[in-house]
Design brief:
Shape: globular
CATH superfamily of the largest domain: DD-peptidase/beta-lactamase superfamily
CATH class of the largest domain: Alpha Beta
Number of domains: 3
Oligomer: single chain
Structural class: alpha/beta
Length: 532
Protein backbone atom coordinates (compact mmCIF):
# COMPACT_ATOMS: atom_id res chain seq x y z
CA UNK A 1 0.00 0.00 0.00
CA UNK A 2 1.40 3.36 -0.94
CA UNK A 3 2.07 5.99 1.66
CA UNK A 4 -0.57 8.69 1.81
CA UNK A 5 0.26 12.37 1.67
CA UNK A 6 -1.77 14.78 3.77
CA UNK A 7 -1.43 17.65 1.34
CA UNK A 8 -1.49 20.07 4.27
CA UNK A 9 0.89 22.96 4.64
CA UNK A 10 2.73 23.43 7.90
CA UNK A 11 1.71 26.39 10.01
CA UNK A 12 4.22 28.63 11.73
CA UNK A 13 5.95 27.68 14.94
CA UNK A 14 3.89 28.14 18.08
CA UNK A 15 4.86 30.36 20.99
CA UNK A 16 6.49 27.57 23.00
CA UNK A 17 9.68 25.75 21.94
CA UNK A 18 10.35 22.06 21.51
CA UNK A 19 13.50 20.85 23.28
CA UNK A 20 15.59 18.49 21.13
CA UNK A 21 17.93 15.96 22.73
CA UNK A 22 20.00 13.44 20.76
CA UNK A 23 22.27 10.50 21.65
CA UNK A 24 20.43 9.38 24.80
CA UNK A 25 21.78 6.55 26.94
CA UNK A 26 18.90 5.08 28.94
CA UNK A 27 17.88 1.58 29.94
CA UNK A 28 16.59 -0.29 26.92
CA UNK A 29 13.10 -1.73 27.15
CA UNK A 30 12.78 -3.52 23.83
CA UNK A 31 10.41 -6.36 23.16
CA UNK A 32 11.47 -7.32 19.66
CA UNK A 33 14.66 -9.42 19.47
CA UNK A 34 14.84 -8.72 15.74
CA UNK A 35 15.47 -5.05 16.38
CA UNK A 36 17.58 -5.25 19.50
CA UNK A 37 20.87 -4.88 17.60
CA UNK A 38 19.65 -2.19 15.22
CA UNK A 39 21.20 1.16 16.24
CA UNK A 40 18.35 3.17 14.73
CA UNK A 41 15.71 1.22 16.62
CA UNK A 42 17.78 1.37 19.79
CA UNK A 43 17.88 5.16 19.47
CA UNK A 44 14.10 5.23 18.99
CA UNK A 45 13.50 3.11 22.06
CA UNK A 46 15.77 5.31 24.19
CA UNK A 47 14.09 8.43 22.87
CA UNK A 48 10.56 7.30 23.72
CA UNK A 49 11.69 6.01 27.12
CA UNK A 50 13.11 9.45 27.85
CA UNK A 51 9.82 11.11 26.92
CA UNK A 52 7.76 8.74 29.07
CA UNK A 53 10.05 9.41 32.03
CA UNK A 54 8.29 12.77 32.44
CA UNK A 55 7.56 13.38 36.13
CA UNK A 56 3.87 13.95 35.39
CA UNK A 57 3.57 10.24 34.65
CA UNK A 58 5.05 9.23 38.00
CA UNK A 59 2.44 6.95 39.57
CA UNK A 60 0.40 7.03 36.37
CA UNK A 61 -0.12 4.31 33.76
CA UNK A 62 1.09 4.28 30.17
CA UNK A 63 0.34 1.81 27.40
CA UNK A 64 2.32 2.58 24.25
CA UNK A 65 2.91 0.72 20.97
CA UNK A 66 4.75 1.96 17.86
CA UNK A 67 5.43 0.06 14.66
CA UNK A 68 5.65 -0.06 10.88
CA UNK A 69 2.28 0.49 9.25
CA UNK A 70 3.05 -1.56 6.13
CA UNK A 71 4.31 -4.67 7.93
CA UNK A 72 2.81 -4.38 11.40
CA UNK A 73 6.25 -4.95 12.91
CA UNK A 74 6.47 -3.46 16.39
CA UNK A 75 9.36 -1.04 16.96
CA UNK A 76 8.53 -0.03 20.52
CA UNK A 77 6.12 -1.04 23.24
CA UNK A 78 5.61 -0.29 26.89
CA UNK A 79 2.94 -2.12 28.89
CA UNK A 80 1.15 -2.86 25.61
CA UNK A 81 -1.45 -5.09 27.28
CA UNK A 82 -2.42 -2.79 30.14
CA UNK A 83 -6.13 -2.08 29.94
CA UNK A 84 -6.66 1.65 30.23
CA UNK A 85 -9.46 4.11 29.53
CA UNK A 86 -9.04 5.09 25.88
CA UNK A 87 -11.49 8.01 26.07
CA UNK A 88 -12.37 9.08 22.51
CA UNK A 89 -9.91 6.63 20.98
CA UNK A 90 -12.93 4.35 21.36
CA UNK A 91 -14.27 6.08 18.23
CA UNK A 92 -11.60 4.24 16.22
CA UNK A 93 -13.29 0.90 16.84
CA UNK A 94 -16.79 2.32 16.38
CA UNK A 95 -16.05 4.14 13.13
CA UNK A 96 -14.19 1.21 11.59
CA UNK A 97 -17.06 -1.16 12.41
CA UNK A 98 -19.60 1.32 11.02
CA UNK A 99 -17.74 1.62 7.73
CA UNK A 100 -17.59 -2.15 7.37
CA UNK A 101 -21.09 -3.04 8.57
CA UNK A 102 -23.19 -0.08 7.43
CA UNK A 103 -20.96 0.79 4.49
CA UNK A 104 -19.45 4.09 3.29
CA UNK A 105 -22.59 4.96 1.31
CA UNK A 106 -25.02 4.38 4.18
CA UNK A 107 -27.50 7.23 4.56
CA UNK A 108 -29.93 7.89 7.38
CA UNK A 109 -33.49 8.49 6.21
CA UNK A 110 -36.13 10.72 7.81
CA UNK A 111 -39.64 10.35 6.40
CA UNK A 112 -43.11 11.82 6.69
CA UNK A 113 -45.86 9.24 6.13
CA UNK A 114 -49.57 8.68 6.56
CA UNK A 115 -52.03 5.77 6.43
CA UNK A 116 -55.01 8.12 6.36
CA UNK A 117 -57.32 9.00 3.52
CA UNK A 118 -57.31 12.20 1.49
CA UNK A 119 -60.33 14.32 0.75
CA UNK A 120 -59.12 17.40 -1.04
CA UNK A 121 -56.77 19.33 1.28
CA UNK A 122 -57.88 17.26 4.29
CA UNK A 123 -55.92 14.25 5.50
CA UNK A 124 -58.14 12.06 7.67
CA UNK A 125 -55.82 10.23 10.00
CA UNK A 126 -52.41 10.72 11.57
CA UNK A 127 -49.22 12.15 10.12
CA UNK A 128 -46.06 10.21 11.00
CA UNK A 129 -42.52 11.54 11.32
CA UNK A 130 -40.19 8.52 11.24
CA UNK A 131 -36.48 8.71 11.98
CA UNK A 132 -33.64 6.25 11.59
CA UNK A 133 -30.97 8.12 13.53
CA UNK A 134 -29.81 10.98 11.30
CA UNK A 135 -27.64 13.18 13.58
CA UNK A 136 -27.29 15.85 10.88
CA UNK A 137 -30.94 16.92 10.71
CA UNK A 138 -31.21 20.72 10.89
CA UNK A 139 -34.29 22.90 11.33
CA UNK A 140 -34.14 23.73 7.62
CA UNK A 141 -34.31 20.02 6.78
CA UNK A 142 -37.52 19.70 8.76
CA UNK A 143 -38.73 22.84 7.00
CA UNK A 144 -38.14 21.23 3.62
CA UNK A 145 -40.08 18.14 4.71
CA UNK A 146 -42.97 20.37 5.76
CA UNK A 147 -42.78 22.19 2.44
CA UNK A 148 -43.09 18.87 0.61
CA UNK A 149 -46.15 17.95 2.65
CA UNK A 150 -47.75 21.31 1.85
CA UNK A 151 -46.82 20.95 -1.83
CA UNK A 152 -48.78 17.70 -1.93
CA UNK A 153 -51.90 19.75 -1.24
CA UNK A 154 -52.48 18.81 2.40
CA UNK A 155 -53.68 21.72 4.54
CA UNK A 156 -55.45 20.02 7.44
CA UNK A 157 -54.69 16.80 9.35
CA UNK A 158 -57.56 15.53 11.46
CA UNK A 159 -55.36 13.28 13.58
CA UNK A 160 -52.05 13.76 15.34
CA UNK A 161 -48.43 14.24 14.43
CA UNK A 162 -46.84 10.99 15.59
CA UNK A 163 -43.06 10.99 16.15
CA UNK A 164 -41.89 7.45 15.40
CA UNK A 165 -38.60 6.91 17.23
CA UNK A 166 -38.99 3.14 17.52
CA UNK A 167 -35.95 2.37 15.35
CA UNK A 168 -33.88 2.52 18.55
CA UNK A 169 -34.76 1.60 22.10
CA UNK A 170 -35.69 4.33 24.60
CA UNK A 171 -32.42 4.25 26.53
CA UNK A 172 -31.10 7.77 25.98
CA UNK A 173 -27.78 7.86 27.88
CA UNK A 174 -24.81 5.51 27.90
CA UNK A 175 -23.51 3.37 30.75
CA UNK A 176 -21.87 5.30 33.59
CA UNK A 177 -22.04 8.65 31.82
CA UNK A 178 -21.46 11.36 34.42
CA UNK A 179 -24.62 12.84 35.93
CA UNK A 180 -23.07 16.30 36.07
CA UNK A 181 -22.65 16.21 32.27
CA UNK A 182 -26.38 15.85 31.70
CA UNK A 183 -26.92 19.29 30.17
CA UNK A 184 -23.58 19.29 28.31
CA UNK A 185 -23.94 18.99 24.56
CA UNK A 186 -21.23 16.32 24.35
CA UNK A 187 -23.47 14.14 26.54
CA UNK A 188 -26.66 14.63 24.53
CA UNK A 189 -29.39 12.02 24.53
CA UNK A 190 -29.62 9.44 21.74
CA UNK A 191 -32.76 9.16 19.61
CA UNK A 192 -33.48 8.23 15.99
CA UNK A 193 -35.33 11.57 15.74
CA UNK A 194 -33.34 14.63 16.70
CA UNK A 195 -32.21 18.11 15.66
CA UNK A 196 -28.78 19.78 15.41
CA UNK A 197 -28.53 23.57 15.75
CA UNK A 198 -25.70 24.07 13.20
CA UNK A 199 -23.33 22.27 10.87
CA UNK A 200 -21.11 20.96 13.63
CA UNK A 201 -24.10 18.58 13.89
CA UNK A 202 -24.31 18.37 17.66
CA UNK A 203 -27.59 16.46 17.55
CA UNK A 204 -30.05 16.80 20.40
CA UNK A 205 -28.85 20.26 21.43
CA UNK A 206 -29.86 23.90 21.17
CA UNK A 207 -27.47 26.82 20.87
CA UNK A 208 -28.15 29.48 23.52
CA UNK A 209 -26.64 32.94 23.13
CA UNK A 210 -26.78 35.66 25.78
CA UNK A 211 -25.64 39.27 25.31
CA UNK A 212 -25.58 42.03 27.93
CA UNK A 213 -28.37 44.57 28.18
CA UNK A 214 -27.80 48.22 27.40
CA UNK A 215 -27.23 49.27 31.01
CA UNK A 216 -26.52 47.79 34.46
CA UNK A 217 -29.59 46.15 35.91
CA UNK A 218 -31.01 45.04 32.56
CA UNK A 219 -31.63 41.37 31.95
CA UNK A 220 -29.34 39.77 29.35
CA UNK A 221 -30.90 39.28 25.92
CA UNK A 222 -31.12 35.56 25.13
CA UNK A 223 -31.77 33.79 21.83
CA UNK A 224 -32.17 30.07 21.14
CA UNK A 225 -31.22 28.32 17.88
CA UNK A 226 -33.25 26.83 16.38
CA UNK A 227 -36.21 28.84 17.70
CA UNK A 228 -38.69 26.49 19.38
CA UNK A 229 -41.16 26.20 22.24
CA UNK A 230 -39.86 22.83 23.38
CA UNK A 231 -37.31 24.47 25.68
CA UNK A 232 -38.04 27.31 28.09
CA UNK A 233 -35.45 29.92 29.00
CA UNK A 234 -35.44 31.21 32.58
CA UNK A 235 -33.34 34.40 32.60
CA UNK A 236 -32.07 35.07 36.12
CA UNK A 237 -28.88 36.84 35.11
CA UNK A 238 -28.13 40.52 35.34
CA UNK A 239 -26.17 43.05 33.29
CA UNK A 240 -23.51 44.73 35.44
CA UNK A 241 -21.18 47.66 34.88
CA UNK A 242 -18.39 47.39 32.33
CA UNK A 243 -15.24 45.92 33.84
CA UNK A 244 -17.07 43.81 36.42
CA UNK A 245 -16.44 40.03 36.41
CA UNK A 246 -18.33 38.02 33.80
CA UNK A 247 -19.92 35.09 35.68
CA UNK A 248 -22.80 34.29 33.34
CA UNK A 249 -23.65 30.60 33.08
CA UNK A 250 -26.15 28.62 31.00
CA UNK A 251 -27.38 25.21 32.15
CA UNK A 252 -30.46 23.01 31.79
CA UNK A 253 -32.33 21.85 34.87
CA UNK A 254 -32.22 18.13 35.57
CA UNK A 255 -34.96 16.15 33.85
CA UNK A 256 -36.56 19.21 32.33
CA UNK A 257 -36.22 21.50 29.35
CA UNK A 258 -35.88 24.67 31.38
CA UNK A 259 -32.60 26.39 30.56
CA UNK A 260 -31.43 28.72 33.30
CA UNK A 261 -29.30 31.76 32.47
CA UNK A 262 -27.77 33.04 35.70
CA UNK A 263 -24.91 35.22 36.93
CA UNK A 264 -23.56 38.57 35.76
CA UNK A 265 -22.52 39.84 32.34
CA UNK A 266 -20.85 43.26 32.01
CA UNK A 267 -22.04 45.99 29.68
CA UNK A 268 -20.21 45.66 26.36
CA UNK A 269 -19.00 42.12 27.05
CA UNK A 270 -18.82 39.49 24.34
CA UNK A 271 -21.77 37.16 24.02
CA UNK A 272 -21.86 34.01 26.12
CA UNK A 273 -22.80 31.04 23.94
CA UNK A 274 -23.52 27.50 25.08
CA UNK A 275 -24.68 24.37 23.34
CA UNK A 276 -27.14 22.66 25.70
CA UNK A 277 -28.58 19.16 25.39
CA UNK A 278 -32.35 18.81 25.43
CA UNK A 279 -34.36 16.35 27.47
CA UNK A 280 -36.03 13.82 25.15
CA UNK A 281 -34.84 14.82 21.65
CA UNK A 282 -37.74 13.01 19.95
CA UNK A 283 -40.14 15.62 21.28
CA UNK A 284 -37.70 18.34 20.23
CA UNK A 285 -37.67 17.10 16.64
CA UNK A 286 -41.46 16.82 16.60
CA UNK A 287 -41.81 20.36 17.94
CA UNK A 288 -39.49 21.80 15.27
CA UNK A 289 -41.31 19.88 12.53
CA UNK A 290 -44.73 20.90 13.89
CA UNK A 291 -43.70 24.57 13.75
CA UNK A 292 -42.48 24.08 10.18
CA UNK A 293 -45.81 22.54 9.16
CA UNK A 294 -47.66 25.52 10.62
CA UNK A 295 -45.34 27.92 8.79
CA UNK A 296 -46.27 26.20 5.53
CA UNK A 297 -49.99 26.35 6.23
CA UNK A 298 -50.52 22.76 7.38
CA UNK A 299 -52.63 22.46 10.54
CA UNK A 300 -52.53 19.31 12.68
CA UNK A 301 -55.64 19.08 14.84
CA UNK A 302 -54.59 16.41 17.32
CA UNK A 303 -51.24 17.66 18.64
CA UNK A 304 -48.09 15.55 19.00
CA UNK A 305 -47.59 12.00 20.19
CA UNK A 306 -44.25 10.20 20.50
CA UNK A 307 -43.04 6.62 20.59
CA UNK A 308 -45.65 4.98 18.35
CA UNK A 309 -44.58 2.94 15.30
CA UNK A 310 -45.66 3.88 11.80
CA UNK A 311 -48.22 1.47 10.27
CA UNK A 312 -46.74 -0.92 7.70
CA UNK A 313 -49.06 0.27 4.95
CA UNK A 314 -48.31 3.97 5.42
CA UNK A 315 -47.51 6.03 2.34
CA UNK A 316 -44.41 8.23 2.16
CA UNK A 317 -45.30 11.91 1.64
CA UNK A 318 -41.82 13.40 2.01
CA UNK A 319 -38.36 12.18 2.84
CA UNK A 320 -34.86 13.42 3.57
CA UNK A 321 -31.61 11.48 3.29
CA UNK A 322 -28.44 12.35 5.13
CA UNK A 323 -24.99 12.70 3.66
CA UNK A 324 -23.33 9.28 3.20
CA UNK A 325 -21.42 7.83 6.12
CA UNK A 326 -18.08 8.42 4.38
CA UNK A 327 -18.83 12.18 4.55
CA UNK A 328 -20.41 12.06 8.01
CA UNK A 329 -17.10 10.62 9.28
CA UNK A 330 -15.53 14.07 8.86
CA UNK A 331 -17.53 16.02 11.49
CA UNK A 332 -17.77 12.84 13.56
CA UNK A 333 -14.07 12.10 13.82
CA UNK A 334 -12.54 15.54 13.32
CA UNK A 335 -14.68 17.08 16.08
CA UNK A 336 -14.95 13.91 18.17
CA UNK A 337 -18.75 13.97 18.18
CA UNK A 338 -20.05 11.62 20.87
CA UNK A 339 -23.66 11.59 19.66
CA UNK A 340 -22.60 10.41 16.20
CA UNK A 341 -20.71 7.49 17.73
CA UNK A 342 -23.68 6.31 19.76
CA UNK A 343 -26.11 6.68 16.86
CA UNK A 344 -23.79 4.54 14.75
CA UNK A 345 -23.65 1.83 17.42
CA UNK A 346 -27.44 1.64 17.60
CA UNK A 347 -27.73 1.76 13.79
CA UNK A 348 -25.26 -1.14 13.61
CA UNK A 349 -27.40 -3.03 16.11
CA UNK A 350 -30.51 -2.52 14.00
CA UNK A 351 -28.66 -3.48 10.81
CA UNK A 352 -27.26 -6.72 12.20
CA UNK A 353 -30.04 -7.91 14.51
CA UNK A 354 -33.08 -5.69 14.02
CA UNK A 355 -32.51 -4.22 17.49
CA UNK A 356 -31.39 -0.61 17.80
CA UNK A 357 -29.72 -1.03 21.16
CA UNK A 358 -26.27 -0.50 22.60
CA UNK A 359 -25.94 -4.19 23.45
CA UNK A 360 -26.78 -5.35 19.93
CA UNK A 361 -24.57 -2.73 18.29
CA UNK A 362 -21.59 -3.33 20.52
CA UNK A 363 -21.85 -7.09 19.97
CA UNK A 364 -21.56 -6.45 16.23
CA UNK A 365 -18.64 -4.06 16.77
CA UNK A 366 -16.89 -6.79 18.77
CA UNK A 367 -17.51 -9.35 16.02
CA UNK A 368 -15.96 -7.00 13.48
CA UNK A 369 -12.92 -6.35 15.67
CA UNK A 370 -12.35 -10.09 16.03
CA UNK A 371 -12.39 -10.47 12.25
CA UNK A 372 -9.74 -7.75 12.07
CA UNK A 373 -7.49 -9.70 14.42
CA UNK A 374 -8.17 -7.62 17.53
CA UNK A 375 -8.19 -9.71 20.71
CA UNK A 376 -11.55 -8.62 22.14
CA UNK A 377 -11.01 -10.83 25.17
CA UNK A 378 -8.49 -8.27 26.41
CA UNK A 379 -10.75 -5.20 26.21
CA UNK A 380 -14.11 -3.82 27.29
CA UNK A 381 -16.22 -1.40 25.24
CA UNK A 382 -19.53 -0.22 26.72
CA UNK A 383 -20.34 2.74 24.46
CA UNK A 384 -19.42 4.04 21.04
CA UNK A 385 -17.82 7.35 21.94
CA UNK A 386 -15.52 6.67 24.89
CA UNK A 387 -17.45 8.96 27.21
CA UNK A 388 -17.90 6.09 29.66
CA UNK A 389 -15.13 5.48 32.17
CA UNK A 390 -15.93 1.75 32.00
CA UNK A 391 -14.17 1.36 28.66
CA UNK A 392 -10.83 -0.44 28.96
CA UNK A 393 -8.58 -1.03 25.94
CA UNK A 394 -4.84 -1.87 25.68
CA UNK A 395 -2.72 0.10 23.24
CA UNK A 396 -1.74 -3.18 21.55
CA UNK A 397 -5.33 -3.74 20.38
CA UNK A 398 -5.73 -0.20 19.07
CA UNK A 399 -2.45 -0.68 17.21
CA UNK A 400 -3.66 -3.96 15.73
CA UNK A 401 -6.76 -2.20 14.43
CA UNK A 402 -4.67 0.59 12.88
CA UNK A 403 -2.69 -2.00 10.92
CA UNK A 404 -5.61 -4.26 10.02
CA UNK A 405 -7.88 -1.60 8.51
CA UNK A 406 -5.26 -0.53 5.96
CA UNK A 407 -6.47 -3.27 3.62
CA UNK A 408 -10.16 -2.31 3.88
CA UNK A 409 -11.74 -0.90 0.70
CA UNK A 410 -12.95 2.10 2.73
CA UNK A 411 -9.59 2.81 4.39
CA UNK A 412 -8.79 5.97 2.42
CA UNK A 413 -12.07 7.60 3.51
CA UNK A 414 -11.57 6.51 7.12
CA UNK A 415 -7.96 7.71 7.11
CA UNK A 416 -9.04 11.09 5.74
CA UNK A 417 -11.43 11.53 8.67
CA UNK A 418 -8.62 11.47 11.25
CA UNK A 419 -7.55 14.90 12.57
CA UNK A 420 -4.34 16.28 11.03
CA UNK A 421 -1.70 17.91 13.22
CA UNK A 422 -1.61 21.71 12.90
CA UNK A 423 -4.06 21.89 9.97
CA UNK A 424 -5.86 25.21 10.47
CA UNK A 425 -9.23 24.24 8.99
CA UNK A 426 -11.40 22.70 11.74
CA UNK A 427 -12.74 20.10 9.34
CA UNK A 428 -9.19 19.02 8.53
CA UNK A 429 -7.20 19.56 11.71
CA UNK A 430 -10.08 18.92 14.07
CA UNK A 431 -8.90 18.17 17.59
CA UNK A 432 -5.25 18.32 16.45
CA UNK A 433 -5.42 21.67 14.69
CA UNK A 434 -3.36 23.52 17.31
CA UNK A 435 -0.96 20.69 18.17
CA UNK A 436 2.57 19.85 16.96
CA UNK A 437 2.87 23.07 14.94
CA UNK A 438 6.35 23.98 13.75
CA UNK A 439 7.53 20.36 13.90
CA UNK A 440 8.05 17.51 11.41
CA UNK A 441 4.68 16.13 12.54
CA UNK A 442 2.74 19.23 11.39
CA UNK A 443 0.60 18.35 8.39
CA UNK A 444 2.02 14.84 8.66
CA UNK A 445 0.58 13.11 11.71
CA UNK A 446 -3.02 11.91 11.65
CA UNK A 447 -4.61 10.60 14.80
CA UNK A 448 -7.68 10.25 16.97
CA UNK A 449 -7.40 12.14 20.23
CA UNK A 450 -8.99 11.24 23.54
CA UNK A 451 -9.54 13.13 26.78
CA UNK A 452 -11.25 12.50 30.11
CA UNK A 453 -10.24 13.50 33.61
CA UNK A 454 -7.03 11.56 34.26
CA UNK A 455 -7.13 9.88 30.85
CA UNK A 456 -5.54 10.92 27.57
CA UNK A 457 -4.85 9.06 24.34
CA UNK A 458 -3.53 9.57 20.83
CA UNK A 459 -3.52 6.84 18.18
CA UNK A 460 -2.83 7.11 14.47
CA UNK A 461 -0.17 7.37 11.78
CA UNK A 462 2.91 9.48 11.00
CA UNK A 463 5.63 9.35 8.34
CA UNK A 464 9.21 9.30 9.62
CA UNK A 465 12.28 11.03 8.17
CA UNK A 466 12.97 8.08 5.83
CA UNK A 467 9.47 8.18 4.34
CA UNK A 468 8.29 5.15 6.28
CA UNK A 469 4.74 5.27 7.62
CA UNK A 470 4.47 4.35 11.29
CA UNK A 471 1.49 3.60 13.50
CA UNK A 472 1.33 4.54 17.15
CA UNK A 473 -1.02 4.24 20.09
CA UNK A 474 -0.29 6.20 23.26
CA UNK A 475 -2.78 5.74 26.11
CA UNK A 476 -2.06 7.53 29.40
CA UNK A 477 -4.17 7.16 32.56
CA UNK A 478 -4.27 8.08 36.25
CA UNK A 479 -2.19 11.22 35.88
CA UNK A 480 -2.89 14.16 38.18
CA UNK A 481 -1.49 16.83 35.88
CA UNK A 482 -3.99 19.09 34.14
CA UNK A 483 -2.71 17.89 30.77
CA UNK A 484 -0.29 15.36 29.32
CA UNK A 485 -1.04 16.13 25.67
CA UNK A 486 2.47 17.42 25.08
CA UNK A 487 3.87 14.03 26.14
CA UNK A 488 1.81 12.37 23.42
CA UNK A 489 2.91 15.05 20.97
CA UNK A 490 6.56 14.57 21.89
CA UNK A 491 6.32 10.87 21.05
CA UNK A 492 4.76 11.59 17.65
CA UNK A 493 7.17 14.41 16.76
CA UNK A 494 10.08 12.14 17.70
CA UNK A 495 8.66 9.48 15.38
CA UNK A 496 8.37 12.05 12.60
CA UNK A 497 12.05 13.00 13.00
CA UNK A 498 13.29 9.42 13.35
CA UNK A 499 15.38 7.88 10.57
CA UNK A 500 18.29 5.60 9.86
CA UNK A 501 20.69 8.53 10.12
CA UNK A 502 19.54 9.64 13.55
CA UNK A 503 16.71 10.35 15.96
CA UNK A 504 15.90 13.70 17.49
CA UNK A 505 14.14 13.31 20.81
CA UNK A 506 11.54 15.96 21.47
CA UNK A 507 10.99 16.46 25.17
CA UNK A 508 7.56 17.55 26.44
CA UNK A 509 7.21 21.25 27.09
CA UNK A 510 5.38 20.76 30.42
CA UNK A 511 1.74 21.39 31.22
CA UNK A 512 0.49 24.91 30.61
CA UNK A 513 -0.10 26.68 33.86
CA UNK A 514 -3.19 28.25 32.31
CA UNK A 515 -4.84 24.97 31.42
CA UNK A 516 -8.29 24.97 33.00
CA UNK A 517 -9.99 21.85 34.41
CA UNK A 518 -12.47 21.99 31.52
CA UNK A 519 -9.63 21.96 28.97
CA UNK A 520 -7.95 19.05 30.72
CA UNK A 521 -11.08 16.91 31.02
CA UNK A 522 -12.59 17.28 27.55
CA UNK A 523 -11.67 17.16 23.89
CA UNK A 524 -10.85 20.66 22.69
CA UNK A 525 -13.80 20.45 20.30
CA UNK A 526 -16.07 19.97 23.33
CA UNK A 527 -15.04 23.29 24.90
CA UNK A 528 -17.17 25.51 22.71
CA UNK A 529 -17.29 28.15 21.41
CA UNK A 530 -13.50 28.60 21.41
CA UNK A 531 -12.82 24.98 20.67
CA UNK A 532 -9.58 23.62 19.27
Amino acid sequence: MTRRSTGIRTRGRTAWTWTVVAGLALTLTWSSPAGADDPAETRLTEAIDRILADERLAGAAASVVVGEADTGRVLYERHPDSRLMPASNTKLTTSAAAMEILGPDHRFRTEVLSDGTRRGPVLRGDLYLRGTGDPTMLAEDYDRLAEEVAASGIRYVTGRLVADDTRFDDRRLGRSWAADDESAYYSSQISPLTVAPDTDYDAGTVRVRAVPGEKPGDAPEVTVTPPNDYVTVDVRGTTVAAGEPDTLSIEREHGRNTIVVSGDIPVGADATTSWISVWEPTGYAAAVFSDALADHGVRVAGGVRTGRPTPRDATVLADHRSMPLKDLLVPFMKLSNNNHAEVLVKAIGHETSGRGTWSAGLAAVEDHLEKEGVDTGTLRQVDGSGLSRMNAVPARQLARLLVAVRDAPWFDQWYASLPVACAKDRMVGGTLRSRMCGTPAAGNARAKTGSLTGASALSGYVTDADGRELFYSVVLNNHLASSVKDIEDAVVVTLASHGREGTETVLPRGARASASPAEAEAECSWTKPRGC
